[in-house]
Amino acid sequence: MSVQKDGQGPGKLRVVMAQLDFLVGDIPGNTQKVIEATRRAEQEHQADLVVFPELCLTGYPPEDLLLRPSMDLRVADALETLRGEHLGPAIIVGAPIREGALLYNAAVAIEQGNITGRYFKRFPPNYQVFDEKRYFANGVDTLVMDIKGVPVGITICEDIWSEGPVEDAAAVGARLVVNLNASPYDIDKQVRRKALVERKAFENRVSIVYVNLIGGQDELVFDGGSVVYDHSGVLAAEAPQFSEGLYPVDFVCEHHCQPIPQPAVAEPSLEENVYKALVLGVRDYVNKNGFKSVVLGLSGGIDSAVTLAVAADALGADRVRAVMMPFRYTSGMSIEDAEAEAVALGVQYDVFSIEPMYDAFMKTLAAPFEGTQPDTTEENLQARLRGVLLMSLSNKFGSLVLTTGNKSEMAVGYSTLYGDMAGGFDVLKDVPKTLVFRLAWYRNSVSPVIPERVITRPPSAELAPDQKDEDSLPGYDVLDQILNLYVERDLSADAIVAQGFDRADVDRVVRLVDINEYKRRQAPIGVRITERGFGKDRRYPITNGWKSGK
């Protein structure tokens, strides 16, 4: 039976969803964050139970830190610290727990200084970006525990996507099921999550509290979006995506544990959600890794314009430096537009011509190049000189270089190794070119910072006279559809052609994707926003004899 607090009586339970951002590996810092959040949840929300995300004490994913010999000791110290605080509300935290020779992804319940329950995740995932079976054994038991007089079942992330854990908890009397999550963002993920939790709640006649992690971790972004569904499968509460905070939900627990409905959260557009994911990914990567600032090459094109806007929105204008590095092929329009973008966003802006450096290189290379015709070698030299300038500024001032390549370019190798690929973080790495255009329009709808002609004119690398991207590639509307089918859906070349695409376009694109794996392995990481980004999701051999077709 719950303790009465500010009008709360027997049969009532106030659950606070701690949708928070944790730092991987910082176990003492994460533990302190749990303590501070629990105290706030008690003081500000009179919480009975505070639910934290999956593996919150280590951060997610801890990867091979789990193999460190001292991991068990550090986690044990953290749990002892939490016990010693004698916190008022009950808490459920995520942590790796070793039992015997096996390590488990666990949820630990602590009440009044005592560990009152442990649950081991039954379905560690091993697909896409997940490789939990590398570290964790499968749990086998169901846990339903009495929290303030309410039978509460505990599950972790993938358990709710599988048959068994929620069903078993409901079968032994749970009226409320909590699910601790570290579920990374992709474009359609929240829709899929909500449909799943709705179905599980309805089928098992239990209310479900789904608490999700928030924050950026290398290429992954966790978007929060924690939800509560009642036993009829009706959405009762939803925390906003990309917003860290403590979100309380009241339950009246009689025959069922019924959440008191809250006002609906406005449904964001796809462009708004993706843009927020990019901003969060950049902010956390820069701040968690201790960079003071960022620097990027501003070309006057759309990719660098969107990257600049994201960086300024993520970090503030005073931590962003934009550099225009013109050459003889750089149009006056590009120079004007780059300056306009920098001024609109209020960032530091510099112009350094690469012409003298290019001439010096070509003089040195005159003898070995004698008798040859200009080709992509000279074009790539321009990109590499720009990369050297940016990396020099990075070294001197401690700034992280943001690269500006998009997913379409990364897919087909439309980039220069040690040139425009030189840097530490690629903001648009998983953003197809057609979506880059939509993000530019979206950002301008908030406040106009990108000149309209940057969005409407044909894209060009400006490495040769009158150069256009579509001179070398199919139109981006076609290219992105082919790439989606081949890279993200794994369709064969023949199957893509069968959907109505030109055979020559398909064969060319597929070949470019296949032969440029070596480039992608050397590219910086970037924010993942799709179900299949270039990184942990897609691991193809560089050296192979696979022939495209069937």
Reading side by side through the largest sheet, how are the strands ordered? Answer: 5-4-3-2-1-14-15
What radius of gyration results from the CA coordinates? Answer: 26 Å
Number of helices in the DSSP assignment: 19
Helix/strand/pairing category: alpha/beta
Largest sheet: 7 strands, mixed
Give the overall pLDDT as a whole number. 93
What share of the residues does DSSP label as strand, in percent?
15-25%
Total strand segments: 20
Which shape, going by the Cα principal axes?
elongated
Helix content: 25-40%
User: Low-confidence stretches at least 5 residues in length (pLDDT < 50)?
Assistant: 1-10
Distance from first to last alpha carbon? 63 Å
Commentary on this structure:
The protein is an alpha/beta fold. It contains 19 helices and 20 strands. The strands form four sheets. It has a seven-stranded mixed sheet with strand order 5-4-3-2-1-14-15. Strands 6-7-8-9-12-13 form a six-stranded mixed sheet. Helix 6 (about 270-290) crosses helix 7 and helix 6 crosses helix 13 (about 435-445). The longest helix has 22 residues, at about 375-395.
Architecture blueprint of SSEs:
Elements: E1 12-19, H1 27-45, E2 49-51, H2 71-84, E3 90-99, E4 102-111, E5 114-120, E6 144-147, E7 150-156, H3 158-161, H4 165-171, E8 176-181, H5 189-204, E9 207-212, E10 214-217, E11 220-223, E12 227-229, E13 235-238, E14 245-253, E15 257-259, H6 270-288, E16 293-297, H7 302-315, E17 320-324, H8 332-345, E18 348-351, H9 355-364, H10 366-369, H11 376-397, E19 399-403, H12 407-412, E20 425-426, H13 433-446, H14 452-456, H15 469-472, H16 476-488, H17 493-498, H18 503-515, H19 517-521
Parallel strand pairs: 1-2, 2-3, 7-8, 8-9, 16-17, 16-19, 17-18, 19-20
Antiparallel strand pairs: 1-14, 3-4, 4-5, 6-7, 9-12, 10-11, 12-13, 14-15
